[in-house]
Structures are given as structure tokens and as C-alpha cells.
């Protein structure tokens, strides 16, 4: 099959990472020709186009207006949307109206309603919608899922996810991550955790949460704020052009920066979810799944470290070999294995942060290409993307209302008081 023609919109930090994902994919498979890139800021788009020329051997055309790009590039097959989340639904729906397939970065949409509209637009256009959530693609997370499914450790009882850090700076210098109408921290960062809760433990019945906004103003210093476990992400943002509101010394923040939630899964298992970027001092990053016969400590997506499994009454974690033996049928799927030298049973890996990042982005793009070619749903479908966004908002709706919230009510857009102003701002 001839290469599909793709264009990318959004050439900020993640937009540059996507370009390197395209390069990684081209190195191993023919899938896409990147024919155009678009950003409101010409210099950001030019930078990504220059990097594309170096990595792909040809320079994509540069646009500063998405509509103009859609009008001019009449034979596109797909667009890759990598703008901040506030625009995901509008750009996605325009792409579907133009008859294109869409890959869109996580979080899928700025509210549950935005996600539902995107799914309707995909359905109407009869095109593929893929959400670029990449943490579950990690082979170690795949192995954990296989161990849970095998029942070798008994039934899951509690998934405990705690991630606390504190800073007054803006992550990556980006203001939109602290503005409620443009997504906000608990959606933008929390959606990865939400997807893993659903991936590992399945359907959720209800949540109860306390949520807060502590840091009402933040410093807009350009300096990159290192996240625990980060690997020089700041370098990807060096070419990014500041928005006007990032030029003032401080930013008025409107989105919550702390959440403590309890989740009730349909299986009866419980989830504990603590997340904050407004907890200064002691860093805490601990993700553990407790099952009837032992615990699984998650090493952190993209880290390559093995999961630590400790059995009931065991004092030390078991060996990597014994971890693998808990899931005798575990095999990476073809797509994932192809990025790990064809190896099917791995419990850890040793790639640098930049390399593993390129691989995960390339996997998402390859899933898009394969889904278009075979007319099937990608693994990260609209429904999967919607559920992760709905879990983030179930926590925020619960915190807002001060009461337990049913997941299905949020996912069905029947409980949406917290999201009302975001929907109004988006005009949906
Ligand atoms: N999967 C991951 O690990 C991961 C990591 C970081 C970011 N992301 C996601 O990637 C997306 C982008 O994040 P980022 O950190 O790159 O943000 P960013 O602010 O660095 O980049 C966004 C870019 O979009 C451009 N843009 C905004 N409106 C536009 C429009 N109408 N037309 C064209 N361009 C427009 C901006 O000028 C900017 O360059 C977000 O959805 C974010 O959640 C995912």
C-alpha cells in the first residue's frame, strides 16, 4: 500500500516529539508521508519542518492556519493533532468534515461533551479516530495487565496511585495546563493515571474526591520544571513560542492542583488516587496494586525498570524470571513487539528516555496507519479516550459537588456542573 499522507497541527513541545516519532516510524516501516505542519507560530512550525527535513529527508509545507492547510492540502489522508487540549474537539471535527482520519493527543477532549462530539463526528465521517495515550503501550504495563488477568496473584483489591510534588513554576513554561477552560493540570496529567486505572482494574462504578486549587498564581519563568523521573523534557520546549499570557511575570491559575480520590470498581476493588503539583517538599511517587496473594509495584511508564512483585508473606520481591512465569501466556502484540526487536516476553528494557518516547509515539502512529488500512478501531479508540477523560472529570465533579459521583453519569454527560463553564467557553 502507498504511504498515507499526513499533516501535523501543533508544533510545540509534544509536536517536536511527534516529529521524532514520525522519523522513528519511517526508519522501520513505510506508513506516512508527512506533507505539512501547522502552528499558529511560524517559527515553531519552521523549526519542526527543518527537523523533519533532517530526519525524513524532505521538508513538509508550513502553515500557520489549520483551515488554510485543509483547503490547500486536498489529498491528505490524516491529521495528527498535537495542540493544547482546549482545541482538540474543534480541530478534530473540522478534520472529519474534510473527510480525514484523525490521531489526537491525550487528553482526547477538554470535557466529556467535547469527547462525545468527537466520537459522533468520527462515526458520521466513517473515519478512524485514535487517541494518542501511550502509557499502556509500555511492555512492562502490558506484562502487569497479563499478570492481573492470569489471576496468579488473586483478585485485585486496591490500586494505590500517589504522585505528589510542588512547584510554583509552570510545567514546561505552558500556561494552559493551569487554566480550567483549556484543560488544567488534573486533566492533562491525570488522564495518564486514569487510563491505567481503567486498563488494569476495569469498569468503575463511583468516585469520591476532595479537590483544591492551592497555588492561585504561578511564576511564568521559562525555565523547565523537572518532573520526578523526567528525562530532559525541557529541551523539547526550547523552540516553543510563548503565548501572550506567559509573558507576564505571573499567571492567575484557575484549575485545581490537588486531588485525593477514592474509586469503587465494579469488581469491588478500591482505588486510591492522590495527585498534586502543589505539595512542596517531600516528593512522593508510589503506584502499587494489591491483590489477594501479593502486590505489584508499578515502576513508572517509560522507565524500563521491572515491576516489583512481592508475594503474600514474602519479604523480598521475586526475580524477573519468576515475574514472567506468573503470566505463562504473556506475549506482546505484533505492533508492540516490533518496537522491541521482535521480543515477545520482556519484563524490563534499557532504552534512554528520548528513544523510548520516540518508540511510543511511533507505535501510536503505526496503529493509526494499520487501522486506516484494515478499516478497524485502534486500541486507543474514542471510547477508551472518553473513559479516561470521564474519570478525571468524575473526580473533579465529585470534589465540586462534595459528594460521591457515579462514573456512568459523568461519562454520559448527565453530571457536568463542574464542566459547565468549560463547555460554555468551548461553545458546546
Ligand atoms: N503523551 C504524552 O506523554 C504527552 C506529553 C506532553 C504533552 N502531551 C499532549 O500534547 C498536546 C500538546 O502539548 P504541548 O506540551 O506540546 O503544548 P505546547 O503549548 O508546547 O504546544 C501546543 C502548540 O500548539 C500550537 N497551537 C495552538 N493553537 C493552535 C491552532 N489553532 N493552530 C495551530 N497551532 C496551534 C501552539 O502555538 C503551540 O506551539 C497536549 O494535548 C498535551 O496533553 C502529551
Describe the structure.
By secondary structure, the protein is of the alpha/beta class. It folds into 2 domains: 4-134 and 360-381, Rossmann fold (3-Layer(aba) Sandwich); 136-347, Dihydrodipicolinate Reductase, domain 2 (2-Layer Sandwich), CATH 3.30.360.10. Helices cover 36% and strands 20% of the residues. The protein has 14 helices and 16 strands. The protein has helices spanning 13-28, 42-56, 66-72, 88-97, 112-125, 139-150, 185-188, 190-201, 320-325, 334-338, 353-374, 382-401, 407-411, 420-426, and strands spanning 4-9, 32-38, 61-63, 78-81, 101-105, 129-132, 156-164, 204-212, 217-219, 250-252, 258-265, 270-276, 284-291, 294-297, 308-311, 405-406. Helix 4 packs parallel to helix 5 (112-125). The longest helix is centred in the C-terminal third of the chain and has 22 residues, at 353-374. The chain is globular. Residues 9-15, 38-41, 44, 66, 82-85, 87, 105-106, 134, 172, 174, 188, 237, 240 line the site of nicotinamide-adenine-dinucleotide.
Amino acid at each position: 500500500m502507498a504511504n498515507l499522507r499526513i499533516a501535523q497541527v501543533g508544533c510545540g513541545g509534544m509536536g517536536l516529539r511527534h516529529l521524532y516519532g514520525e522519523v522513528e516510524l519511517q526508519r522501520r516501516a513505510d506508513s506516512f508521508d508527512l506533507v505539512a505542519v501547522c502552528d499558529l507560530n511560524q517559527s515553531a512550525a519552521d523549526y519542526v519542518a527543518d527537523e523533519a527535513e533532517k530526519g525524513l529527508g524532505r521538508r513538509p509545507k508550513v502553515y500557520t492556519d489549520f483551515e488554510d492547510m485543509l483547503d490547500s492540502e486536498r489529498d491528505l489522508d490524516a491529521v495528527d493533532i498535537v495542540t493544547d487540549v482546549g482545541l482538540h474537539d474543534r480541530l478534530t471535527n473540522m478534520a472529519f468534515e474534510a473527510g480525514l482520519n484523525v490521531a489526537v493527543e491525550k487528553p482526547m477532549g477538554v470535557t466529556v461533551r467535547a469527547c462525545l462530539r468527537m466520537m459522533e463526528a468520527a462515526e458520521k465521517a466513517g473515519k478512524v479516530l485514535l487517541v494518542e495515550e501511550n502509557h499502556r503501550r509500555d511492555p512492562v504495563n502490558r506484562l502487569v495487565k497479563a499478570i492481573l488477568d492470569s489471576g496468579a496473584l488473586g483478585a485485585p483489591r486496591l490500586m494505590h496511585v500517589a504522585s505528589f510534588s510542588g512547584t510554583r513554576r509552570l510545567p514546561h513554561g505552558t500556561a494552559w495546563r493551569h487554566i480550567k477552560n483549556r484543560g488544567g493540570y488534573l486533566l492533562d496529567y491525570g488522564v495518564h493515571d486514569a487510563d491505567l486505572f481503567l486498563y488494569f482494574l476495569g469498569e468503575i462504578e463511583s468516585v469520591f474526591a476532595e479537590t483544591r486549587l492551592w497555588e492561585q498564581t504561578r511564576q511564568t519563568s521559562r525555565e523547565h520544571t523537572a518532573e520526578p523521573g523526567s528525562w530532559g523534557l525541557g529541551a523539547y520546549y526550547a523552540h516553543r513560542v510563548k503565548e501572550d499570557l506567559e509573558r507576564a511575570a505571573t499567571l492567575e491559575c484557575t484549575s485545581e492542583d490537588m486531588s485525593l480520590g477514592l474509586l469503587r470498581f465494579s469488581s469491588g476493588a478500591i482505588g486510591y488516587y492522590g495527585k498534586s503539583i502543589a505539595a512542596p517538599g517531600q516528593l512522593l511517587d508510589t503506584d502499587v496494586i494489591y491483590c489477594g496473594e501479593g502486590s505489584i509495584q508499578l515502576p513508572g511508564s517509560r522507565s524500563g525498570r521491572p515491576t516489583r512483585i512481592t508475594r503474600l508473606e514474602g519479604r523480598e520481591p521475586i526475580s524477573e524470571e519468576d515475574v514472567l512465569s506468573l503470566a505463562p501466556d504473556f506475549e506482546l502484540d505484533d505492533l508492540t513487539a516490533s518496537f522491541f526487536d521482535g521480543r515477545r516476553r520482556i519484563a524490563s528494557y534499557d532504552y534512554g528516555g528520548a528513544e523510548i518516547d520516540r518508540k511510543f509515539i511511533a507505535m501510536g502512529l503505526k496503529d493509526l496507519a494499520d487501522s486506516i488500512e484494515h478499516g478497524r478501531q485502534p486500541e486507543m479508540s474514542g471510547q477508551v479516550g472518553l473513559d479516561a477523560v470521564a474519570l478525571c472529570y468524575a473526580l473533579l465533579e465529585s470534589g465540586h459537588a462534595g459528594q460521591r459521583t457515579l462514573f456512568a453519569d459523568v461519562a454520559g454527560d448527565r453530571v457536568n456542573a463542574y464542566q459547565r463553564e468549560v463547555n460554555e467557553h468551548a461553545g458546546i
